[in-house]
Each structure stands twice: as C-alpha cells, then as structure tokens.
Design goal:
single chain; about 475 residues; 13 helices; binds adenosine-5'-triphosphate; binds aspartyl-adenosine-5'-monophosphate
Length: about 475
C-alpha cells in the first residue's frame, strides 16, 4: 500500500487507492450514514468521505469517526475520486477521498483550547462579527503547540528560518566564518544591570548578553570576519511589544581596512539581500501571513539612491522640525524613534533607514569615538518601520584607551582580563553589529508583537511553555 502526500494528489489520480496519514482539520456528519473529514498535512487539505456501505463500512464506524476530535491524527485507506465541482474548504479541491478503512493514530486527551479556524482569522482587519480572531495572544502562547499549527504560524517560522539562511548565505559568500561562543560567562558582556546570574558549581556565572566580547576576541585571534547566530539573554524587566528576555542574535564582526563605513555598507548590503530574498523566494509565505496581519508592504530603497542614512544630528533636526522639543532629544526614545520612522516614510518613502554617528555617551564602552568630534562615535543603528533592529560600531582596539573607557562607564577592567588581553597582544581595527532576529521578522511582517516572532517566547512574565 502506497503512502500519498496530499499535495501531490489531483483529479489525475482518479481511481487510485491511496494511504494517507493526516490530521482531521474539521469534520461534519451528515445524518447517521455519512461523515466528511477535512484532512490536513502541513498547509494542504483534502476532503474525505466515510459512508456506510453494505459490506465494509458499518453505521457504528461512521458514528465513531464522526466523534473523533478535530486535530486527531488518522490513517485512511481510500479511493481518489474526481469531484464534479471544486471543494471550497480544501486546498486540493478537485478530488475527494472515499474512505474504505480508517485508523486512529493519535487522539487528543483534552479538548482543543481553540479551533484553528478561530486562530486563523484576521487580527488586524476592522472587527467584523464572527470574522475577527477572538483568540487572545496570551491564550495562543499558553497553548503554543496548537497555535503554531495555523497556516500563518507555519509561514512565519518558515520566514524566520529564511532570514537566518539568507544571513548565513550572504556572509559565507563574503569571506565570513560562523563561530560558536560560550553563553556562560564569568562577567557581564554589555552592562551589569541586565545580566542573568546562574549558579555555577560553588560559585556563579552569567548568561551572555551578546557575543560581543567573544566576537572581538576572534578578531584579535586573526579570524578577520566572523558571525554567529545564537541565543542572547537580557534580564530587562521590559514588558513591551519588542523586548524578550531571550532572543536570537545575528551578530557579526570584521576587520576594517580603512574606514568603519566598510562595516556599515556590508551590513546594509546584507539587509537588502535578505529583504530581496524574502520577497523573491517566499512570496507565498508572506501572502499567507498578510491574510491574518494586513500590513503595508515593506519598502526599502534600491539602486543608485542607496539606503537613507541620517546622522544622529540630522535625525534630531527632523524631529525638531516636526515639533519635538530639542531639550528631550539628547537620546531618541522609543516614541520618537517611531515618529522619526513615520517622518522618514512620508518624506523618503522607505521603511528601512540608518542612523549614523551617535553621541559617544549613549554607546557602550567598546565604541570608537569619532576622530573629528570626540563627543560623537563611529556607531550606527538600523531601523525598520521606525524600530531599531541593529546596533553596531567600530570598536576601540587600543588596550589602554579601552581600559580607560571601561572605567569611565563604571566597568572594572580587572573583571574582563581575558578580553583586554586580546588587545594587549595586538588587535587590528574592527567593527560589527548585532541584530535581533525576532525584531526583523516582526517588523518585516508587521506582526506588532515580538512574541509572535518567537517559537516559545521568553519575557519577564513567561517561562512556559
Ligand atoms: P538596545 O538595548 O540596544 O538599546 P533596545 O531597542 O532594546 O535596544 P533599550 O535601550 O532597551 O532599546 O530601550 C530603548 C527604549 O525602550 C527606551 O527608550 C525605553 O523607553 C524603552 N523601554 C524599555 N523598557 C521599557 C518598558 N518596560 N516600558 C516601556 N518602554 C520601555
Ligand atoms: P544591542 O544591545 O543594541 O547591541 O542589541 C542588538 C540588537 O538586538 C535586538 N535586541 C532585542 N531583541 C529582543 N528583545 C530584547 N530585549 C532585545 N534587546 C536587543 C535589537 C538590537 O538592535 N553588542 C551589541 C551589538 C554590536 O555592537 O555588535 C549589542 O548587543 O534588534
């Protein structure tokens, strides 16, 4: 008996006997002699029909089948039968499977927390009775396994995979190698304030807040161009739509030949390659997500014009021109970042832009000051739809100056001896950046909440499932 994949079946198989293992998406009994089962494998569905016959299918069997819960996994043996008219509820719509035998492979112990149909309705369209999804995000996350089965979520995580894949492909093609740095650390890697402390035998350790130190040490070890895709831990009590306590960092670091713009430009080329790759190779998945989360198409600038790159000062001026008081713009807070995103969109028609040359005091200790104005720095943030997706900079490679900057930011150089040693042994000029994978995914698709872009999200209030 041959196993069949629903996606490969069509009217051309009329008369074939097939064995299919699938979930019951929904079922509908018609009288006591007939039940329709909508069978699903991944994204594909087909209608199957179990009907009382003289010798093979009994009334009891139809009753039993009609009582199976949605989402049960069954094995059916049946005959492909061409359907006289298209079946609206199935993706393979020109056939029906006439079931001869049916086995239950895995049933459900509990009732489903919500139906996949309910979970698949639009979340952003104006509320229309019966059409708007009533399944709250918290309910979804509490029952994440069922939630993840929706077509939308299947597409979201295929796109998450695609971003990582495109990131790797681009960097592999540009002379980078992938590294794996330790997540257990003896000291904080960013600032002491947001680090998780864990027991480590008789003492304690910290979970890495970024691969910052390790990727710079790899440069000191002459790896020249490195990247990492790995978990990043932040003990920030930030209950927002864009903060997680554990997220996936896409990090890279590279040697600079002449100017830190080399790094900024490589990062920019990489983002555009990712955006293009998503649009070209994953149009189907983007469209599926778009049915549940209607979003204006993500826009970026291609060609000669290049990516819009503002200096921090120019960004502040844009906001001041729009009526924001200059006094509060020593730093640009989340609200003003979003406002800037809207201004940029209106003026330059792009959802993707860069801010360069941040004031030095806003950046971490390892950031290189601007040689022309030491109050500024050779650092940049990248934005999508007015929200930060990347932070990066040229780094200080002089050990004496680095130790000085550490002290100025309240970091004890003795606590980072291993890191400083790398510079004492000679380290070339270098720079890099770190990206939040879930933020890129959330903003590209406009999912409005980072938890939707994380398989099993971790935030200050959620450690389960
Ligand atoms: P980075 O950590 O690299 O700076 P980020 O985007 O996470 O990136 P944060 O510095 O953590 O930025 O915070 C940036 C903004 O997020 C701040 O302007 C702050 O107002 C806002 N923010 C942080 N935590 C909260 C919170 N719990 N509620 C509201 N806003 C918050
Ligand atoms: P930063 O702390 O800005 O920089 O982090 C880099 C990027 O990571 C993402 N991000 C987050 N995503 C989800 N939840 C969070 N709590 C969170 N915090 C940050 C953002 C951010 O742009 N070492 C530097 C990078 C570098 O200079 O190379 C760093 O970690 O998208």
């Amino acid at each position: 008996r041959k196993r069949a994949d629903i996606s490969t079946l069509s009217a051309q198989n009329d008369g074939d006997h097939v064995l299919i293992r699938a979930r019951i998406q929904t079922s509908r009994a018609q009288g006591s002699k007939m039940v329709f089962l909508n069978l699903r494998q991944r994204q594909d569905t087909v209608q199957a029909l179990l009907q009382v016959t003289d010798n093979t299918v009994s009334k009891q069997m139809v009753k039993w089948a009609a009582g199976l819960q949605d989402e049960s996994i069954v094995l059916v043996f049946g005959t492909v039968t061409k359907s006289p008219e298209p079946i609206k509820s199935a993706t393979v719509d020109d056939i029906e499977i006439h079931i001869g035998e049916l086995w239950l492979i895995a049933g459900l112990e509990d009732r489903l927390p919500f139906s996949l149909d309910d979970a698949s309705r639009s979340e952003t369209a104006p509320e229309i009775e019966g059409q708007f999804s009533r399944v709250l995000l918290d309910t979804r996350l509490n029952n994440r396994i069922v939630d993840l089965r929706t077509q939308t979520n299947q597409a979201i995580f295929k796109l998450q995979h695609a971003i990582g894949d495109l990131f790797r492909e681009y960097l592999n093609g540009n002379g980078f190698i992938e590294i794996h740095s330790p997540k257990l650390q003896g000291a904080a890697t960013e600032s002491g304030a947001s680090v998780f402390k864990v027991g480590y035998f008789k003492g304690s350790a910290f979970l890495a807040q970024s691969p910052q130190l390790a990727k710079q040490m790899a440069i000191a070890a002459d790896f020249e161009r490195v990247y990492e895709i790995g978990p990043v831990f932040r003990a920030e009590d930030s209950n927002t739509h864009r903060h997680l306590t554990e997220f996936i960092g896409l990090d890279l670091e590279m040697v600079i030949e002449e100017h830190y713009h080399e790094v900024r430009e490589l990062l920019d080329g990489m983002f555009k390659t990712i955006f293009r790759g998503l649009r070209e190779k994953y149009a189907k998945e983007i469209a599926v997500v778009g049915r549940q989360f209607e979003a204006e198409e993500f826009k970026w600038r291609e060609g000669e014009e290049g990516t819009l790159t503002l200096t921090f000062k120019q960004a502040v001026d844009l906001l001041v021109e729009d009526g924001v008081s200059r006094e509060i713009l020593d730093d640009i807070n989340t609200e003003n970042e979003r406002r800037l995103g809207r201004l940029v969109k209106a003026k330059y028609d792009t959802d993707y832009f860069i801010i360069d040359k941040f004031p030095l005091e806003l950046r971490p200790f390892y950031t290189m000051p601007d040689p022309e104005d030491p109050t500024l720095s050779n650092s940049y943030d990248f934005f999508m739809r007015g929200e930060e997706i990347l932070s990066g900079a040229q780094r200080i490679h002089d050990p004496v100056f680095l130790a000085e900057q550490m002290r100025a930011k309240g970091v004890d150089p003795d606590s980072m001896k291993g890191y400083l040693d790398g510079f004492r042994m000679g380290c070339p000029p270098h720079g890099g950046g770190g990206i939040g994978l879930e933020r890129v995914l959330m903003l590209f698709l406009k999912l409005n909440n980072i938890r939707r872009a994380s398989l099993f999200p971790r935030d200050p209030k959620r450690l389960e499932p």
